[in-house]
Amino acid sequence: MNSMVICLIIFAVMIILFFNRKIPMAFTSMGVIVALYVAGCVDKATVFAGFGNNNVLTMAGMFIVAAGLSRTQMVNNITKLLYRVNNGSFTRVLASYILVIFLLGQFVPSLPAMFAMVYPLVISMCKQLKCSPSKMMYPIAVTVVSTSFVIEPIGPYAAWFVTQNGYLESYGWTGSLLSMWSETMVFLPTALVTLLLTIFVLPKLMPDQPETETVAITGPDITNNEALSPVREFLGYGIFIATVIGLMLGLPSWAVTMAGATAVVLSGVLDEQTALIRMNMSIVLLYAGVTVMGEALSNTGAAQLLGDLAASALSGVRNGYIIGAVFYLVSFLMTSFLYNRATTTVLIPILIITCSSIGCDPRGPVILCSLASMSSLITPMPNPVVPMAMQAGGYTQKTILRVGIIPAIVRGIVGVAIAMTIFPAFS
Residue 343 is part of which domain span? Predict the structure, then answer.
């Protein structure tokens, strides 16, 4: 039995265990790592890289920084202000959070950091509204993942079009290239539709109460402890603001958040024990495990096989909208099983080669590939924000699959219609 088959079997077992939750997902991920290593699907370097990558360190650090903010009175004050301004309306409060996330998401390059920033506010507001965080957490996660970085010239990926043009030229496309605004023309209107979904549609589909034990708020309730001294209160604000500014300036996110976490403890805003609890190791371990799984799928050729099969199916198709839809669907499915950047890395070269061979302009499909990688929130694998939301909101795999497919379909329809109209497949 070759490594690809073994990897696919382990992957299937992992998905089954995620669905039935007989074993906590974090420990399922740990077992998957061991199985992949013993089976030879990954080497030791890949395993350790899963624990030491940028997102894992960013998550751990930002959880502590956000907990430091929760230890101050800022969360309570903001919560009371928003509650008063919005007259206690759940929809208005959620809309306020989502619009702020959308604006910040154009500048802050770390999605896990963005989610970690907002979840203490969500927890506090839900207590004020007397509703479960399960009603808000997933819509917040969809906003973070699907509407960040959509205004390319001002976002952290302002050079995205340069990278993609390099791919286009390297893999044989000699026609028109992408401009700085190409992605924005597709992403921005799709993001606006997504915001409407997260405010008015998704909350109605979320469970009224957590379906599993929530993890992000199971530590000691630090929001109701004795007030900090004025100096430490000021330091709690300052460390959080400095961390956000560091992220917006494009400094390495893991370094910024780990420095912030260290400062939170050294300043006495949090004690060591509380900081370690708030690091949320179950979420960190879960993401490390699914990251290694994604690497195994890529390294053994399973991801490449999926891409090749999908691309070959386009032979003879002349309808540009069908071509765009197929590549969106393939990218979406691959992202559901791989880390999103791994998907684009694997699929975009295949996409360009396929389009060039049939005389199709690859610019629209390239944009749709990236759009799909931001639209998949139906498994914990594509992005660390998904397992964070699952744990914080107490969702099962079944719930995020049922709810997450709705924005994915809507975003696909809107994105394909715009991208393949602006960049026709055949001139």
Answer: 46-152+159-427
Number of folded domains in the chain? Answer: 1
Residue 363 clears pLDDT 90, i.e. is over it: yes
Question: What are the pLDDT digits (tens) for 259-294?
Answer: 999 999 999 999 888 888 877 777 777 777 877 877
Query: Does residue 13 sit within a domain?
Result: no
Any domain includes 64: yes
22 found inside a domain: no
In this structure, is residue 18 part of a structural domain? no
Under the banding of pLDDT at 50, 70 and 90, the label for residue 12 is: confident
**Is residue 123 within 8 Å of residue 217, measured between CB atoms?**
yes
The residues, ordered by sequence, that sit 6+ positions from 52 with a Cβ below 8 Å of its Cβ are none
